[in-house]
Amino acid sequence: MLLELKKVTVSFGGLTAVNNLDLQVDEGMIFAIIGPNGAGKTTILNCISRFYTPCSGQISFKGENLLTKKTHKVLASGISRSFQNVELFSKMTVLDNLLVGLHPSLKSSLLSNAFKTKKNKQEEEAAKEIAFEILELFDLKHHANEEVRNLPFGIQKMIDIGRAIISKPKLLLLDEPVAGMNIEETKKNAELITRLRDEFGITILMIEHDMSLVMNISDRIAVMDFGKKIAEGTVTEVQNNPKVIEAYLGEVQEDVGT
Amino acid sequence: MAGQIIIGGLAAGSLYALAALGLILIFKTSDIVNFAQGEMAMLITFISFTFLTVTKLPYFVSFLLSLVIAFIFGMAVERIFMRPVQKAPILNQIILTFGLYMVFRGVAGIIWGYTPVGFPEALPNKHFNYVGITITINQIFIFVVTTILMLGFYLFFKHTKIGLAMRASSQNIATAKLMGIGVSSVFTRTWGISAILGGIAGILIAPVTFLDPNMMGEVGIKAFAAAILGGFTSLPGAIVGGLLIGVFEGLIAGYVSSELKSVFVFALIILVLYVKPTGILGEKITKKV
Amino acid sequence: ACGGTNSSTTSTKNAKEKSSVKNSQGVTDDEILIGGWVPQSGPAAQWGILAEVYQSYFNKVNADGGVNGRKLKYIAIDDEYQPSKTVAAAKKLVEQEKVFAILGTTGTAHNKAVKPYLTQKGIPVVAVASGDSAFVKPAVKNYFALQTNYDIEARIFSTYANKELKAKSVGIFYQNDDYGIVYRDAAVEELNKLGIKVAAQESYNPTDVDFSAQALSMKKASPDVVFLFASPKPAASFLKEFDKIGGSAERMLTYTSADSTMIDLAGADVMEGVLSTTWVKSLKDKDNPLIKEYVDQISKDIPKQDPNSVFMRSAWAYAQVLVEGLKRSGDNLTWENFIKQMETLKDWDGSLAYNVTYTSDYRYGQTSVKISQFKGGELVDISDVIKYEP
Amino acid sequence: MKIKRLQILFISILLLGYPLLVGFSSYFIYVAGLFIIYAIMAMSLNLLTGFGGQISIGHAAFLAIGAYTTAILTLKLGLPFWLNLPLSGVITAIVGFLIGLPAVRLSGHFLAIATLAFGLAIPEIMLKWEGLTGGFAGLFIEKPSLFSSDTSFYYFTTVIALIITWLILNLLKGNFGRAFVAIRESEIAAEAMGVNVSLYKTLMFSISAFFTGIAGSLYAYFVGFISPHDFNMNISLIVLAMIVLGGLASITGSILGAFILTIIPQVADRFPGFTITITGAALILTILFLPNGLISLFNYKWKRKKTENKQLSLEG
Amino acid sequence: MLELKQISAFYGNIQALDRISIQIPEGSIVTLLGANGAGKSSTLKVISQLLPIKSGTMVYKNEDISNLEPNEIVKRRIIHCPENRQVFPKLTVEENLIIGSYLRRDKDQIKKDLSDIFSYFPILKERLKQYASTLSGGEQQMLAIGRALMGNPKVLLLDEPSLGLAPIIVNQIFEIIQEINRKGTSILLVEQNANLALRIADYGYILENGRIGLEGRAEFLRNNDEISKYYLGGKSHAANLY
Ligand SMILES: Nc1ncnc2c1ncn2[C@@H]1O[C@H](COP(=O)(O)OP(=O)(O)OP(=O)(O)O)[C@@H](O)[C@H]1O
Ligand SMILES: Nc1ncnc2c1ncn2[C@@H]1O[C@H](COP(=O)(O)OP(=O)(O)OP(=O)(O)O)[C@@H](O)[C@H]1O
Ligand SMILES: [Mg+2]
Ligand SMILES: [Mg+2]
């Protein structure tokens, strides 16, 4: 088991956003968390990436206690994330955005950076190469030197994901990776996410409201409501769970797409 | 002695708070720290002084007249200088106000010279003695004016739609426009009003600091400090911050070292901010990811 | 109102070869160039008025035909009261503008900053507008001070407090900078010598606005006499505050604040009875043609300002001493000769300065003051000239 | 990148040839020296504020610490200048680090006031600490014997400035610079990408202070005299104005800004009483007509950005 | 009644819209579709005057409104609910909603509208005093929609209203859109979820690179092969929706 949450509770003032939640994500999975708005999904992600500290409960990753880690140490331990509402470095170029994703693995010292030593140059070159591999994978090479703020939202989302995986994490946390994308783009992203798992061996924990993505690529789905897990299982199990239909999916419209 | 020091500190503190109000008003609506606030106050005080001495108008008439001019002046500054750079980075706008500060000070120097002159007090100069503590009517008057203004604006921001609109404009100009808020005229009027506040501050402070182009230098810095200590967006915070600085400064000057009182004040501010990074009454608003 | 536009100091038009000596820089057949810096912006911009008075005095001299046929031209540079800019100003005046002499420059630290440079150049520096001893002790060849030295004034204060006021204890209120500290040190030394107790030493920073704590401490110490080594604004604020809380003592102000500004700032009630010194003459003697000349010229050139201002009277005196030196130098306008001629001034009286003396190792200029007092909204002299030999 | 290199190359050639151009006039060399020293300071501040997004309005205090360190080490300990120069940088950097510690928790205007407080306190402390600093009377420092003339010290200053420029450009291009800018753009994302935001903020303060300290040391030697008057709040604000005027987050811009704001008072000082008015007016006009700084005049790429920027800020 | 004629608009020197013409008849729902960066949001910004019109005219109820200030547009009750929520982070939920009714003076009706919005989105009522910045993504989206409704729109411009909402809420949103439309509000809807959009719309425009590529009645577009392939994910798509 790669990631394990035990009895995690998070509250803000009087509001309990996550309530006694248990969650287990196995290696190599695409694991989805779904649930109504405000159910506490993003909060969970924020706990794993250590932006929040739960009031109680434990979170362990590869058997290691995550809660003792500082936020900036999380990436080095193999967990990376994207953001619900893209959180890019908007006045930096696409390439630089990706390179920041490699930050913990660049070891040159301040001095060798300042004096541009050979070692530093080599390291930078190597880093750029990796970045270009990612750009290739995402088909974004032609945007490499553009500032991200000038790019369409869809592309920004891709860069957000690209920045998250450049460090080759074990676990990737995706918060609504296809929100705001059209069907074509969603399909492309679905393929990409599957490839990340298959080719790079990245375990994926994602939150998404787009059921065409969730139901297509997830191995396992947890459903949350009011901070609690109300169901967990495979796609079919979840899809047919009346509680899930009532709280989240709603009645399937008969005339959709006809 | 401590009692008198505290009274003196409170008096100085209410000057700082008074000078801070206009600063906060502009900050609340446009996120700009107006470095020229004190100099605008100084110019208006000079204008009021001209009414008093050249045209020999009565005190309160020249007071009111200069506030009318202040309103126009503030609006003009916004229209001419701030409006064109509304979309530039905030820091650039702030540096622009620094440019205004230099020009206003320089122009005042050219027109009125740098020799300090006395300025009349608002009320007849009487003072009370009570258990060995002296306090003047004018000190009480300044404190009362400051408190009333603060409360007035506090309620205005909290409970009126225009107040709400001003806060919204500072957070997101484009979306504020989508609400139907005439953002431009909100900004213009804000500058007008804060120039009025500046004028009131200047006219009430001038009897203490005397009138010359540098009159607001020290007060301006302390006002900025008071505003920040209080939380910068909080009007009651300005009073709390101002009074705290005034009293603390007095105590340090009285019991520790008068030369290092500013050093101690700033150490206090850093300490307070270290414990509460958004100031005493400032609210921490987290960004959610 | 001041500052020429451009100076072509190398103008050689119809050089008449008046004398065999080659004049120093800044002198042509019909012009002598004088320069100096004064802050006209920044915290000490109040001093900027000096430059206007120099210009005004030169206007008068020029109207009367100049100095031995040469008109005076004055260049003022604003150094914004920043020593690094003062250095630039000094270099500019000496090397670019090529002025003949430097007149009435402000700021103790600022003058100190350029003293090595100016000394090395050897250019005459007349009437440094600071009473710091650094410019007179020891005497420097090209430096001529004029106004009464701070150190000396503080000692005169102390003696006066001792003799005339019979003070047993003295409190000192001083500005925490090069100006106030010089006074304080001298006063404390002198008072100790005289066996007078220094009851309190209250300081403030030049930009302070609230003096209630200092006033209170002073009142608590209840000295017989309070010395105020302060510039006008803080002095006025302090006196107001001291008065308000019921402080009572004889109060003595330095000459820097000794004018009607104090009455305007602090009010006649508060100022009533306050003592002060003056090193320049008062304008009381209206019939004196020299005084009249001053008042007329200033009223014409600087109508907005009260000619009574101690700054302005001082500036007139500074410029006048320089011109006296130039006059005495005749057509031999070399630095060497100018310095020599300045050293011929013995108890010389100008319109406003008096008893000015320079020798090769005595550069104090004037070391005498009169004691004056604020009475009924006016400042009146109450003593004869008190001279103090350093 | 290429344009930037050309700009810097051009500037360096100009600087090195300058004394010849002005016929070794000590006044012109002095003013140019001041400009170069302020340029170093502006670049360091830009590193912190323009690139790193951490506003400082007390930077003159770092200049003061650098200058006083040099003066005190020279006068009290008699250390040679080749030791003083780096030591001034190091000691200022240590102070920068200490200032950075509380500053880490603050942002925006709260950080501004903390740095302002520092900027106001340092000159007052220097005043009070008379035994060491000479108080208001100030301290005299002689130029090192190796570069005792104005011209030779000017060259020395220029070379140091060029080296510093090179170092800062390298830093900005590498991993550290990216992390600094990332912090400016989004602390949250930077943290998520493994940037130790607190550490890097203090680091930024230290680096900026280090170079400013070096500038201070050069200042002490160059001016020859230091006193607390030279390091007031106004200097801090002027240097901040330099980087805004030149262009935030632009090294060439910092140099331009330093140039303009050093020269203007020198030209304006002939109109006594008008100096600050002229300086202020120049500042206002530049920002009004070039909201992104002088650099936008020189950089075509910027022109496009400007308009986009406009739109962007529309969206808050 | 709202008509855009040959509108072009630029961001600096980047052209975002190239002579587009759009009509929103009274009481209709019109949808605007297109790929990322096609210019959909720009069209809405042009209508609300956030993006200045370079050339072309815009007419509303026989009045030329091409050169009005944004607040004048709002005065005519043309309300724009912008892309990506854009809630005021440092205002509370309640204040965000109230500011939506900034220009209105009909106090009683405002109260009623407020309670309507609470009945649409009960969660907002629970979060009333919370700062908008701390809401979850979906809650912010609801708030943005609610805020737009508080303007009592005659014409409502919705930019991707379903973004980040749970499926059940998405359905609900579309019902709300239809409901307010029935009450007389015309709607211009930008959506990525073209399926849903075309289901409720009367008419649709497809934008491509700042130009109108195709337009037509909603049924027509739904049945157009090209469109359904690209924007609707193919006929078979609905089957594997969930
Ligand atoms: N800092 C905070 N202060 C107060 N309440 C908060 C804070 N952060 C989150 N909440 C509340 O906690 C709840 C859970 O939020 P969270 O962002 O985890 O929801 P979510 O499941 O991701 O929803 P969505 O699908 O809409 O993004 C929400 O109701 C939100 O309002
Ligand atoms: N602020 C801006 N500055 C510069 N260019 C912009 C800006 N906003 C949008 N653009 C450009 O204008 C074009 C149209 O953008 P617009 O936002 O209207 O597209 P959209 O159809 O709404 O796309 P999306 O589906 O991503 O929301 C795009 O090429 C985009 O890059
Ligand atoms: Mg979420
Ligand atoms: Mg869009």
UniProtKB/TrEMBL annotation, chain A:
<dbReference type="GO" id="GO:0015188">
    <property type="term" value="F:L-isoleucine transmembrane transporter activity"/>
</dbReference>
<dbReference type="GO" id="GO:1903805">
    <property type="term" value="P:L-valine import across plasma membrane"/>
</dbReference>
<dbReference type="GO" id="GO:0005304">
    <property type="term" value="F:L-valine transmembrane transporter activity"/>
</dbReference>
<dbReference type="GO" id="GO:0015808">
    <property type="term" value="P:L-alanine transport"/>
</dbReference>
<dbReference type="GO" id="GO:1903806">
    <property type="term" value="P:L-isoleucine import across plasma membrane"/>
</dbReference>
<dbReference type="InterPro" id="IPR003593">
    <property type="entry name" value="AAA+_ATPase"/>
</dbReference>
<dbReference type="InterPro" id="IPR051120">
    <property type="entry name" value="ABC_AA/LPS_Transport"/>
</dbReference>
<protein>
    <submittedName>
        <fullName>ABC transporter ATP-binding protein</fullName>
    </submittedName>
</protein>
<feature type="domain" description="ABC transporter">
    <location>
        <begin position="3"/>
        <end position="251"/>
    </location>
</feature>
<dbReference type="Pfam" id="PF12399">
    <property type="entry name" value="BCA_ABC_TP_C"/>
</dbReference>
<dbReference type="InterPro" id="IPR027417">
    <property type="entry name" value="P-loop_NTPase"/>
</dbReference>
<dbReference type="GO" id="GO:0016887">
    <property type="term" value="F:ATP hydrolysis activity"/>
</dbReference>
UniProtKB/TrEMBL annotation, chain B:
<keyword id="KW-0813">Transport</keyword>
<feature type="transmembrane region" description="Helical">
    <location>
        <begin position="223"/>
        <end position="246"/>
    </location>
</feature>
<protein>
    <submittedName>
        <fullName>Branched-chain amino acid ABC transporter permease</fullName>
    </submittedName>
</protein>
<feature type="transmembrane region" description="Helical">
    <location>
        <begin position="34"/>
        <end position="54"/>
    </location>
</feature>
<keyword id="KW-0812">Transmembrane</keyword>
<keyword id="KW-1003">Cell membrane</keyword>
<keyword id="KW-0029">Amino-acid transport</keyword>
<dbReference type="GO" id="GO:0006865">
    <property type="term" value="P:amino acid transport"/>
</dbReference>
<dbReference type="GO" id="GO:0022857">
    <property type="term" value="F:transmembrane transporter activity"/>
</dbReference>
<dbReference type="Pfam" id="PF02653">
    <property type="entry name" value="BPD_transp_2"/>
</dbReference>
<keyword id="KW-0472">Membrane</keyword>
<comment type="similarity">
    <text>Belongs to the binding-protein-dependent transport system permease family. LivHM subfamily.</text>
</comment>
TrEMBL record, chain D:
<dbReference type="GO" id="GO:0005886">
    <property type="term" value="C:plasma membrane"/>
</dbReference>
<keyword id="KW-1133">Transmembrane helix</keyword>
<feature type="transmembrane region" description="Helical">
    <location>
        <begin position="89"/>
        <end position="122"/>
    </location>
</feature>
<feature type="transmembrane region" description="Helical">
    <location>
        <begin position="203"/>
        <end position="225"/>
    </location>
</feature>
<keyword id="KW-1003">Cell membrane</keyword>
<dbReference type="InterPro" id="IPR043428">
    <property type="entry name" value="LivM-like"/>
</dbReference>
<keyword id="KW-0812">Transmembrane</keyword>
<dbReference type="GO" id="GO:0015658">
    <property type="term" value="F:branched-chain amino acid transmembrane transporter activity"/>
</dbReference>
<feature type="transmembrane region" description="Helical">
    <location>
        <begin position="60"/>
        <end position="83"/>
    </location>
</feature>
<protein>
    <submittedName>
        <fullName>Branched-chain amino acid ABC transporter permease</fullName>
    </submittedName>
</protein>
<feature type="transmembrane region" description="Helical">
    <location>
        <begin position="237"/>
        <end position="264"/>
    </location>
</feature>
<dbReference type="InterPro" id="IPR001851">
    <property type="entry name" value="ABC_transp_permease"/>
</dbReference>
UniProtKB/TrEMBL annotation, chain E:
<dbReference type="GO" id="GO:0005524">
    <property type="term" value="F:ATP binding"/>
</dbReference>
<dbReference type="GO" id="GO:0016887">
    <property type="term" value="F:ATP hydrolysis activity"/>
</dbReference>
<dbReference type="GO" id="GO:0015658">
    <property type="term" value="F:branched-chain amino acid transmembrane transporter activity"/>
</dbReference>
<dbReference type="InterPro" id="IPR017871">
    <property type="entry name" value="ABC_transporter-like_CS"/>
</dbReference>
<dbReference type="InterPro" id="IPR003439">
    <property type="entry name" value="ABC_transporter-like_ATP-bd"/>
</dbReference>
<keyword id="KW-0813">Transport</keyword>
<keyword id="KW-0547">Nucleotide-binding</keyword>
<dbReference type="InterPro" id="IPR003593">
    <property type="entry name" value="AAA+_ATPase"/>
</dbReference>
<comment type="similarity">
    <text>Belongs to the ABC transporter superfamily.</text>
</comment>
<protein>
    <submittedName>
        <fullName>ABC transporter ATP-binding protein</fullName>
    </submittedName>
</protein>
<keyword id="KW-0029">Amino-acid transport</keyword>
<keyword id="KW-0067">ATP-binding</keyword>
